[in-house]
Amino acid sequence: MKNTRPLLSSLLLAFIFNFMFCPLVSAEESASKFVRVPIFFVTDRNLIGDPKQSNFDFGPHRKYLGDCLHDPFVGNAYVVIKNVDKKPITEALKGIGWQSAEKEKSQGLVTSTLASGRNQEEIASKFYGALKEQCELTPDKNVFVFAHGYKNSFRSAAHTAAWLAYNAERPIILYSWPSVAKLRSYSSDENNVEWSQEHFNDMISSLDAVCKEDPEIKIRLMAHSMGSRLLVRAIPFLRNKPYIAEFALICPDVDSGLVKHYARRYFNPKATTKIRLYMSRHDKALAFSQFLHGGYTRLGECADSLSGMLNQVVGNKPVFGDNDEKKEARDDDDAFKANMKLAKHRMQTIDFTAIDRGLIGHNVPAKLIVNMSFNGRPGQGLELEQEESGKRSGLSNTFARITHLKDNSPHLTETCLRVVKMKQEMMAPAVAKDGP
Asked: 85, 114, 307, 432 - which has most CB atoms within 10 Å?
């Protein structure tokens, strides 16, 4: 009897060990190497191929060469990407369309389907109805909207949108305007993104109707590079919309002076929308854009505090009129300044130079953006430090000197947030790297 007790104890311990840790192993094994991530899309590009086949695509030209009917293509795309975070395909993710994709050769594959209907009104109703259904399956009813930048094909833009959707685990709409997707076609892209503005505004109006049906739905608007012009020019339509949870400009290739005009005219200090500007001093693309535009600085290379910049352009309202009018204006001005102090906490300039990759930089840091959206933090292995406002890249400063267009506005004493990598000894176990 004495000899059997150690054996029974060992068997019991082995059973407990297997019972406790088997679920962890099976969860790890259940994570697919690749995932098929769904995205919604709205595009006014030309159609290439037969929409009844899965291999059709959208080209580099406008859908309309003559009269514009304001009926862009809408539908769903599915992008196969690497499951870098080893996420299991839960029932919740299946509910919004995620699928496993085991074959490595399928990585990067984009398949699309167009929304169908007897007329454009029915097509739009089905499309935005499906979006609303997916939003209601998520815990916070958030939906992301992403507009790509210069030199992006529909497929490359779909990949970026898929990485945002992968990190957010929320529905996303890709708005894809007709970028020629060639280095030499910068002027054509500038022309086309301006042409596309009314269609983008139409999409905002459609989302407005969805949010009125369900006031709990929140929209997070994001744009990269030249696509940021769509967001900036849509500001008159976005003003005072309580469902806009976030307004994010990623390396925005838009004239900083133009943005100040919009800010002076439309900024509402009482609003609640988070406003984030992502910039990198490693971004050479915007420095060259500055040079192409005669030396005028792009918003994405200013590295200024957003709240400080807004205080400069809207914080000191002039007071005119007789004594009674002056007193009333001063009262309004005091209230305005108080609201501006509150607004400061929802505006951020985020310098992600430390994680901007490649020779040119100018990337979309998907994981950082999503972490900031939901947590206000940069994510594991990263932290935020205060840095002096206005730290532009050396190349940008060089072009400013060459063109004699250096900004001589009073120096902003406020600070920006700089993303830094944590030291290895301070970090938790490393996680997989982000996607492109």
From this structure: 307
